[in-house]
Design goal:
8 strands, single chain, globular, alpha/beta
Length: 225
């Protein structure tokens, strides 16, 4: 039967999923794709996210707490693709007393690691399910997603460490895929066509990335390779 693939994460995952869905339509014998990814939906469970009035976080919470369990039970995916870029690498707030924490703060990173581990446990509770955890591609220098504010690789270190720990704990069921390398490797040549806005893959770029890299990785992972 076709491999059942579920995509979760933020708008970068949503943009990538367009290419994955398009590929699955062309290869119905190989895969079926469901998408729960949406704007601003990271895995960190906080009560505040920089730049959000609470709407994105509330919608994300509903998706992960209400829709994801239903999807795991009713569709029983073989592979879950996880990709989060900005929501888990920008200031978050857990309480008004504590205030905003930067992603490099040890408290932030400790909580992120716990939330990521909890998500991994929830997904891996489904027998034989595999996780394809894609590395976040840092926004390009031409991205207008945070005008007058620069990005630094250290903002994603907590996420990288958390995913590495999950991979080490479940090497037979979790695979870290180099989405960052696939994207930035092309952009280092001066090519801006993959992410015209500096953050999200275009539909054409998403399909090309799936054809060139992701499809074979997911199919191989699904069969335990």
């Amino acid at each position: 039967r076709p491999v059942r693939i579920l995509v979760i994460g933020d708008s970068t995952a949503e943009a990538l999923s367009a290419g994955l869905v398009d590929w699955a339509v062309d290869h119905p014998d190989l895969a079926q794709v469901d998408v729960l990814a949406q704007a601003g939906c990271g895995l960190v469970r906080a009560d505040g996210m920089d730049g959000d009035d609470g709407t994105l976080e509330a919608e994300c919470r509903r998706t992960l707490q209400r829709d994801l369990p239903v999807e795991l039970e009713s569709r029983t995916p073989d592979v879950v693709v996880v990709l989060v870029t900005l929501p888990d690498a920008i200031p978050r707030r857990w309480s008004s007393d504590e205030g905003w924490l930067d992603p490099t703060d040890p408290r932030y990173q400790e909580r992120l690691a716990g939330d990521y581990a909890d998500m991994a446990d929830q997904l891996l509770a489904v027998p034989d399910l595999r996780i394809a955890w894609l590395s976040a591609a840092m926004p390009a220098e031409w991205c207008l997603c945070r005008i007058n504010s620069s990005f630094d690789h250290s903002m994603w270190q907590g996420q990288r460490d958390a995913v590495a720990a999950i991979d080490a704990a479940h090497p037979d069921r979790v695979a870290r895929l180099d989405f960052d390398g696939w994207v930035t490797g092309t952009e280092e040549t001066g090519d801006r066509s993959l992410r015209e806005d500096g953050l999200h893959l275009t539909t054409t770029a998403a399909r090309s990335l799936v054809d060139d890299h992701l499809a074979v990785e997911l199919l191989t992972l699904a069969v335990g390779g």
